[in-house]
Amino acid sequence: MTGRPAGRPLVPAYLSTGGVARPSRPHLERLSVLTGTGLPVPSGLPAAELALLDVLDGGSLTVVEAAALLRLPVSAVRVLAGSLVDRNLVVARAPVPPAERFDPDLLKRVADGLRALKHHQ
Hints:
single chain; mainly alpha; 3 strands
């Protein structure tokens, strides 16, 4: 008997969303930031939505990060997140615009400069 292939979820993605294919919130993107509101979780919430709330507990994640942790496709997490936003259990923020992101080259130059200063002391 062989085990299941590594990386494949036990439940197909379409079942984790209750067969829903499109999110109720089309503005949710791969880099949208999800944060739990901390409101009490109603009984009867689907297992996949509970799992998403669990990974968001105490912090924030992008949709793609949550998808990786849950081992689900991004499209399925967008559906789950939209449902939780509709229930006021999750808040979704737009992704940080590219102009406001850190420049990795600048960060590398600063780190190199700090290392050079340390060696000169």
